[in-house]
């Protein structure tokens, strides 16, 4: 058969790993939903973006930086890394930048995982991590959630059995919003096999109580703290995040990262946002108020929300079937929400907490949809 007549999927010689993967993406984006619907969404509260937006200082800095967009961004991210190091009490060499936590997850998987290597995570946890593990040929070992929380004891047990190079935990958790005390996290780290590293996804750290946050320990290669400017800082579209990690791991990333992968506008915005503490504090306070409003909304519907330390709440619809029907009913009304993919977590829908007018409109739409399903 000539190459012209050969089916398109037989024409290319993908790697064995890629060739064996099913077609998949971690999430269906709201833009794709809008294209299917042929109209714009009225409320976009499913991706845990901050609808409060970036801080005034960050927006001003990004506008100014756009005048120099013809230049590459600083590949060392020197000024931002220096500011982050001061914030966290570490050395600049213990800060790595990436285009969001998703980028950093892929880099750390690439740094550690050979085809066939075991990796441990929770069943139903943030799917982009699994996406990277499978893309590099790792073997996923998962444990179910317990009481809507990642089960640290079960993760400990499977880690000691499989001796993985990487264990992934999000604290606070995505998709449920729950959290563990730092003492429980420290116990997990202490019990990990010698070669294991904990990838600790702290995307929602700004919203978490202090006792949920494990202090960075850069003296041993046991924990990588992953943070982002996508949530409280309202810069999801800028794509910028960072890792706090031992210097040897940061140097390892320098061997494989895209050195010009972060644009100068994002660098400027992130640096300015770090200095706008009062704005970030106001967002966190408003989100806390909104979580309470959604809890009362759920109570009025005869259900509950899962206690959350994030900028979203998981509202219990009672079953996976009802949750899916609720997601569809809301989408028909132009409201974009998401739900966890794995039972029993999939009995919930996940709703971002935004500004007060948005919360009021969302509450009306949820009440209406709740009666329809």
Short summary of the structure?
With 373 residues, the protein is an alpha/beta fold. Helices cover 40% and strands 13% of the residues. It has a seven-stranded mixed sheet, sandwiched between helices. Strands 9-10-12 form a three-stranded antiparallel sheet.
What report would you give on this structure?
The strands form three sheets. The protein has a seven-stranded mixed β-sheet, with helices on both faces. Strands 9-10-12 form a three-stranded antiparallel β-sheet. It has a two-stranded parallel sheet with strand order 1-11. It is of the alpha/beta class and 373 residues long. The longest helix is centred in the last third of the chain and has 24 residues. The protein is built from 13 helices and twelve strands. The protein is globular, with a radius of gyration of 21 Å. It folds into two domains: 121 residues, Aspartate Aminotransferase, domain 1; 220 residues, 3-Layer(aba) Sandwich (Aspartate Aminotransferase, domain 2).
Order the strands across the largest sheet as they lie in space.
2-8-7-6-5-3-4
- Unreliable spans are none
Summarize model confidence as the mean pLDDT: 95
Shape: globular
CATH superfamily of the largest domain: Type I PLP-dependent aspartate aminotransferase-like (Major domain)
């Amino acid at each position: 058969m000539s190459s012209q007549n050969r089916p398109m999927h037989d024409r290319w010689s993908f790697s064995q790993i890629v060739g064996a993967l099913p077609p998949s993406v971690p999430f269906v984006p709201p833009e794709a939903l809008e294209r299917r619907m042929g109209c714009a969404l009225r409320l976009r509260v499913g991706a845990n973006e901050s609808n409060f937006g970036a801080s005034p200082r960050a927006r001003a800095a990004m506008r100014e930086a756009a005048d120099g967009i013809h230049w590459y961004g600083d590949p060392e991210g020197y000024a931002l890394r220096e500011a982050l190091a001061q914030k966290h009490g570490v050395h600049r060499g213990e800060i790595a930048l990436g285009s969001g936590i998703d980028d950093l997850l892929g880099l750390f998987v690439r740094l550690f995982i050979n085809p066939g290597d075991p990796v441990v995570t929770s069943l139903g946890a943030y799917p982009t991590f699994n996406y990277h593990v499978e893309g590099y040929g790792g073997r996923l070992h998962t444990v179910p959630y317990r009481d809507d929380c990642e089960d640290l004891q079960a993760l400990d047990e499977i880690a000691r059995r499989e001796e993985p190079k990487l264990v992934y935990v999000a604290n606070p958790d995505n998709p449920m919003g729950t959290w563990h005390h730092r003492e429980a996290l420290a116990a997990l780290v202490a019990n990990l096999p010698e070669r294991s590293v904990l990838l600790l996804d702290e995307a929602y750290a700004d919203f978490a109580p202090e006792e949920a946050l494990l202090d960075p320990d850069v003296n041993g290669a046991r924990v990588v703290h992953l943070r982002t400017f996508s949530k409280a800082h309202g810069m999801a579209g800028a794509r910028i995040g960072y890792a706090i990690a031992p210097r040897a791991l940061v140097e390892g990333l320098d061997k494989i990262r895209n050195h010009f992968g972060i644009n100068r506008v994002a660098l400027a915005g992130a640096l300015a946002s770090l200095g706008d503490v009062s704005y970030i504090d106001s967002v966190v306070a408003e989100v806390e108020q909104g979580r309470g409003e959604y809890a009362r909304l759920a109570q009025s519907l005869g259900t509950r929300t899962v206690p959350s330390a994030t900028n979203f709440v998981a509202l219990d619809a009672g079953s996976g079937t009802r949750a899916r029907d609720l997601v569809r009913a809301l989408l028909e009304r132009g409201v974009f929400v998401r739900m966890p993919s794995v039972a029993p977590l999939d009995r919930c829908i996940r709703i971002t907490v935004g500004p007060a007018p948005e919360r009021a409109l969302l509450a009306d739409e949820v009440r209406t949809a709740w009666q329809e399903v």
